[in-house]
Predict the structure of superoxide dismutase.
Amino acid sequence: MERMRGEGEGEGDPPGRPGPLTDKERLMVQDSWAKVYENRDDVGVAILVRLFVNFPLSRRFFSQFRDIEEPEELERSAQLRKHAGMVMGALNTLVDSLDHSDQVASVLQRVGKAHALRHKVEPGYFKILSDVILEVLGEEFPAVVTPEVGGAWTKLFATVNGGIAAIYEEVGWAELSASTG
């Protein structure tokens, strides 16, 4: 996301909405991601297993492993590994695109519309997933994801979650979920 302000970042932003990443924050996210992405397969699986163990209701959106409860069995699931690869790929595209707000918007459009219209995933799960990602990265890469770097990731995920929420609103999620519930 393009830097649009000087040192007074955040001034004048609507409450609850983060400003764009600063150049320093963008670089912290990109540098830390490069190290994480080297281990993308294992990290992706760890993220999804943590999500499904800590938030078991989230499994209902996945017919392929909805009924798998044991973490070890989840880790061995080929379908889970495939989906973990897609999650990590989408995150990689997002991080690689941080210098280009139009590309970030395109990633969010694609992910948001697919999850709202096709997969019917409740939008709150993006916040839950963001928190799980930050937790796993902080545990698995403590030397890389320092508190300052974690703050940059938190700001990025707040922006992403706001963008996803806007897309859900745009596609009429409230009406869609009411008609299918």
